[in-house]
User: What shape does this take?
Amino acid sequence: MKTLIKNIKEIVTVSKNSKIKKGKEMSKLNSLKDAWILIEKDKIYDFGSKKDLFKIKQQKINRTIDAENGMVLPCWCDSHTHIVFAGSREKEFVDRIHGLSYEQIAKNGGGILNSAKKIKKITEEELFKQSLKRVHEVIKTGTGCLEIKSGYGLDTKEELKMLRVIQKIKKHVKIPIKSTFLGAHAIPKKFHSDPEKYVDKIITDMIPKVAEENLADYIDVFCDRGFFNPKQTEKILSAGLNFGLKPKIHANELDFSGGIQIGVKMGAISVDHLEFTGKKEIECLKKSSTISTLLPSTAFFLGLKYPPARRMIDNNLPIALASDYNPGSSPSGNMEFIISLGCLKLKMTPEECINAATINGAHAIELENKYGSIEKGKIANLIITENIPSISYIGYTFGKSVIKKVLINGKIYK
Ligand code: NIG
Ligand code: FE
Assistant: This one.
């Protein structure tokens, strides 16, 4: 079964080696103008420009998709989401309009603890239904690789429920999904007087059970002021590593928490958020292969300061962009908007943002060998845009999608 995509204005992120893009490399987007792509079953079989059209002539083509002069990009790789959650938290959104901060809301039992209450009340089946709907929605906005965290259970039974829902979603959708155990997302109320007890519960009860059922690929801790400190984070991550769970952590969103340093020390694949990143943190990241994942919609939605993306790029770090889709700090998984925010608020160029949302995002969930760029043999999870004047138009226009078609495994999804 061969599918031809013809009349492509430009194929963007043509790559030969799937390598992560660091620093200056992020500003380069290889592309091919006046092009075509040939897909065989679910993979990119070949691509070329008008002058290589002869290559197609020898092929038996079963189906043709006319790109109508749109651009073709790899689907977004959203490497950080909390898309499995119950209900919504727009009341807190209004509380913040009236002046309460995210941390004040959390201290009053709102925030993550509010979502935890809702998780307790919902059945696994209903949670699956609500979450699956969101996953289908984000695929339609061009997301073709996804990471999903637990972390609204905060109790063994409920955390396992969330992770089972993620596992079920993995089986139901055609995009690759990585799951992350985030039992250390917040300290439940009943452990407030003795947080170490909750840390012990995570280590001795939750992690072994998560591993036994093989429910997670990664382990995460919210290492920040008012949540988990570096010492607790290290203990939890070490316990996870003993069960083969690699770290990917929330760090330095609310303060210089030491989370970046602990993440690097523990060999985290990525440290995520990083609003509070100074010279020390950058020096530490420079000596590591840990990816810096920035989540600009969270700073946008909560009115936080933005991470110093420019300084990080100038220091040759690799940056990934992700949505952080969750009910409290980023109730959207729209990666086109993330690219707009990357340009407008992080002062990253459109080219840097696209690399950060595709190949670097794929690296942040270890899917770079099959996804994240246009390469022969990679899975054909592709975006076809409208006829846009240039690649910069994607970040420039916001509130309106330029995505016309989404292909998943070589088949039209939208
Ligand atoms: O990544 N920072 C920690 N966790 C989430 C927010 C969770 C919530 O408020 O529900 C985040 O922003
Ligand atoms: Fe998050």
